[in-house]
Amino acid sequence: MNHAQLVALDHQHTLQTYGRFDVDIDHGKGATLWDLAGRKYIDFTSGIGVCSVGYGNETWAKAIYDQALTLGHISNLFYSQPYAQLANTLCERTGMAAAFFGNSGAEANEGLIKLARKYSFGQYGKGRSTILTLKNSFHGRTITTLTATGQDVFHQYFFPFMEGFRYADANDLDSVKAQGGDDVCAVLVELVQGEGGVLPLESAFVQGLAQLCAEKDWLLLVDEVQTGVGRTGTLFAFQQYGVSPDAVSFAKGIAGGLPMGGFLVNEKCRPVLGPGTHASTFGGNPICSAAARAVLDILDEDALKAVTEKGNYLRAGIEKLQKKSIGATRGLGLMIGVEVKEGYTNKALAAQLIENGLLVLTAGPALRLLPPLTITKDEMDQGLAILDRVLE
């Protein structure tokens, strides 16, 4: 099949819900990809932060292969080793108490919302179910997580949206307090607002928010769908902010390319969701769990330290370019936002970069870079060279 045939097949049989670039991807190795015609691309996207250990990783692939031959799926009505071992590793490396496994980031955040409302109902009864989120946030594309998302542009078409959410300004504790009330049960935040433009929250704000939640007995919920699993240089971003959330969601990079999500809870929240209150048919399935265990093995402390070093290297390289179309960088680890200056658009810049062999993303008004965490210095240099040439 060639590119034109693939595009025709897509248009004939696939709902056109994605604004795809006119590029196909056939295979990859490390952080390098090739299309059907054999053209090479340096990947600064990792499937929107999913392919955390790159492409063609043999350790990851062998874990999937071995598990597929052993046990591909079994109902959660029975015990199996992979999910239990994965939960143990996640809890040991985060200090959280227990895990729930699902299939996606939106599903993980739905779980956080259910957890908070059930916790509050058990402690206080009805009437305490509102969850505060931040303006410019993004929490998913189900009806409930769209409502939780603090961007009006997403609150279209799919009416009626859910009740029970209010929005505060990021980095403004007074705004959070103003939106509070006797009906609030939790606050849900991204520590780096990803889709909003790669905007890290200020440490003082996050620590103040944690203190406020403790005083009010609001659950502090952290959405780490994009920031988790090593993306920011620690296994989870909250480990850099000096706070201990009541629950934290994860997805994207956890299984290195297979569909998996979930959330971790602290000891206070461990008993909240009992039998029959929450479930997922495919959640914690053996193959995805085995893949996730391989990802965590690869992302040991040395690898996480390297993520920070690579992020610093990329950001320094970008800022040295001093091109008229881009400005300062921001972010944590290998989650990088690049300012696009007035008179230029991030979508136009992204299209030019992709056309010249560098895959990038957009977020809010910025360019967004989420390379595989295993990207090499040579691949980063190749990407920087393309960026330099195109922006010139």
From TrEMBL:
SUPFAM superfamilies: PLP-dependent transferases (SSF53383). Pathway: Amino-acid biosynthesis; L-arginine biosynthesis; N(2)-acetyl-L-ornithine from L-glutamate: step 4/4. Pfam families: Aminotran_3. Gene3D superfamilies: Aspartate Aminotransferase, domain 1, Type I PLP-dependent aspartate aminotransferase-like (Major domain). One of its GO terms (cellular component) is cytoplasm. Binds 1 pyridoxal phosphate per subunit. CDD domains: OAT_like (cd00610). Keywords: Amino-acid biosynthesis, Aminotransferase, Arginine biosynthesis, Cytoplasm, Pyridoxal phosphate, Transferase. The modification N6-(pyridoxal phosphate)lysine is found at residue 252. One of its GO terms (molecular function) is pyridoxal phosphate binding. Transmembrane segments: none annotated. It catalyses: N(2)-acetyl-L-ornithine + 2-oxoglutarate = N-acetyl-L-glutamate 5-semialdehyde + L-glutamate. It comes from the Bacteria. May also have succinyldiaminopimelate aminotransferase activity, thus carrying out the corresponding step in lysine biosynthesis. Homodimer. This is Acetylornithine aminotransferase.
